[in-house]
Specification:
By secondary structure, the chain is of the alpha/beta class. Helices cover 31% and strands 23% of the residues. It has one domain: Metal-dependent hydrolases (TIM Barrel), CATH 3.20.20.140. Strands 1, 2, 3, 4, 5, 16, 17, 18 and 19 form a nine-stranded mixed β-sheet that branches. An eight-stranded parallel β-sheet has the order 6-9-10-11-12-13-14-15. 56% of the residues are buried. The structure holds N-(aminocarbonyl)-beta-alanine and zinc ion (2 copies). N-(aminocarbonyl)-beta-alanine binds next to loops.
Length: 471
């Protein structure tokens, strides 16, 4: 099957030009001006951006958490992602405490099998890392299973938290094998102490979720992560960075040439603390960790994205329905399942807030929503760019079309949208996943199960130039 995309404006992290793209099967065959070739399908992309499919390296589909399970499974979540212009996700498998890492990977493969609408990879959340059982499993995942990234938590004591020795051990093993440690960097032990104090004083409202998780607890976690990684000789990637103080730690490290990388998420760029003060229990919709911060942090994060101190915008998509899941914490904010939806809205939000509002270039938009994640997580150049030989994961994006975000029209399996009523300029119209059109005229026309598992290669290979240049 050959598909010709004609007359589009092709934008990658580095290029911006008008040309046609010939797709042969699953990959890009040829790019050129006014290609005069036969094709089975022709897509006219006049006045549209033609960009690499988005890569969201932080989702939690079908994940048991906080006494319930995230509301999107691998089918609903990946279809919603596709609607929004994301063609690859990297989701998190979880090793339950004291159990096998390999078994956890098998469990997550089973959750995804036959369901995914787009390609996907896995990070592994490590909660236990005994030198005899789990370290060999971690090596096996990197060498044989294509899992090169591992998330460790400084938060959630007793549930997911890994102590410093475990983090250091994981970083050392990852460092030796071309892997990468992703850190949830919040001092959860101190936070638990503050939470206990608040509850003892009868403070149960959702806003106390934010008031008990100070920005310094995050900055301390980021600082410790960087120091531990430096001692272990490994790069480190901070997930869901939310505030200026934490960003400052990343910036200082990068200025010293230390291979520290970080992502932020749309919730920290567009939402703020005041959302917790909404009437009644509404604030529970925004209970996620780290919490929403005061509004002034947003501009600092945009500057971080512009200056490449932050490399990626992921979503941390972890949806729980307001009606029957967030209510678990009706009388106690600490029991509200942590997480929010967003996988469908990321590309439009970042385009609108970034490019339309003049904060970043269109190339940087592509870089932070696709290319950087491909490079950092070992998918480039198969994913994250438009070039001959790359997978034909392509989004035809209308930069002038407006859309009002709403739970009424979104495709995520959750009964609210964090960005309800926001108008954005810049909308995904057509999506190809490895050469197949999966979104057309606002409808999903693909087949669940067509998404492929992506075995990833060494991530440090991709990071080397960035490490060498200190940026
Ligand atoms: O609140 C959040 N972020 N939930 C998902 C789990 C995590 O920490 O990423
Ligand atoms: Zn986290
Ligand atoms: Zn997360």
């Amino acid at each position: 099957m050959k598909t010709l995309i004609k007359n589009g404006r092709i934008v990658t992290a580095v290029d911006d030009y008008h040309a046609d793209i010939l797709i042969d099967g699953e990959t890009i065959d040829m790019i050129g001006k006014k290609l005069d070739v036969q094709a089975d399908k022709i897509i006219d992309a006049t006045d549209r951006l033609v960009i690499p499919g988005g890569i969201d390296p932080h989702t939690h589909l079908d994940m048991p958490f906080g006494g319930t399970v995230s509301a999107d499974d691998f089918q609903t979540g990946t279809i919603a992602a596709a609607h929004g212009g994301t063609t690859t996700i990297i989701d998190f498998a979880i090793q339950a405490k004291g159990t096998s890492i390999q078994k956890a990977l098998e469990t997550w493969h089973a959750k995804a099998a036959g369901k995914t609408a787009i390609d996907y990879g896995f990070h592994m959340i490590v909660t236990d890392l005994s030198p005899t059982d789990h370290v060999p499993e971690m090596r096996h995942l990197m060498e044989r299973e294509g899992v090169l990234s591992f998330k460790l938590f400084m938060a959630y004591p007793g549930v997911l938290l890994a102590d410093d020795a475990t983090i250091f051990r994981a970083m050392s093993v990852a460092g030796e094998h071309g892997g990468l440690i992703c850190m949830h960097a919040e001092n959860g032990v101190v936070i638990n102490e503050i939470v206990a104090r608040a509850l003892a004083e009868g403070k149960t409202h959702p806003k106390y979720h934010s008031l008990t998780r100070p920005t310094l607890a995050e900055a301390e976690g980021v600082n410790r992560s960087i120091m531990l990684a430096e001692m272990a000789g490994s790069p480190v990637y901070i997930v869901h960075l939310s505030c200026s103080e934490a960003l400052q730690k990343i910036k200082e490290a990068r200025d010293e040439g230390i291979p520290a990388f970080a992502e932020t998420c749309p919730q920290y760029l567009f939402l703020d603390y005041t959302y917790y003060e909404r009437e009644g229990f509404e604030g529970a919709k925004y209970v996620m960790t780290p919490p929403l911060r005061e509004k002034w942090h947003q501009e600092k994060l945009w500057t971080g994205l512009r200056m490449n101190d932050l490399q990626v915008v992921s979503t941390d998509h972890c949806p729980f329905c307001f009606k029957d899941q967030k209510q678990l914490g009706k009388d106690d904010f600490s029991k509200i399942p942590n997480g929010g939806p967003g996988v469908e809205n990321r590309m439009s939000l970042v385009y609108n807030g970034g490019v339309v509002q003049g904060r970043i270039s269109v190339n940087r938009f592509v870089e932070i929503t696709s290319t950087s994640a491909a490079r950092i997580f070992g998918l480039f150049p198969r994913k994250g760019t438009i070039a001959p030989g790359s997978d034909a994961d392509i989004v035809i994006f209308n930069p002038n079309k407006k859309m009002t975000i709403s739970a009424e029209t979104h495709h995520m399996n959750v009964d609210y949208n964090c960005y309800e009523g926001m108008e954005v300029t810049g909308v995904t119209e057509t999506v190809l996943s490895r050469g197949k059109v999966i979104i057309e005229n606002g409808s999903y026309v693909g087949k669940p199960g067509d998404g492929k598992y992506l075995k990833r290669s060494s991530v440090q290979e991709a990071l080397r130039p960035a490490v060498a240049s200190g940026r």
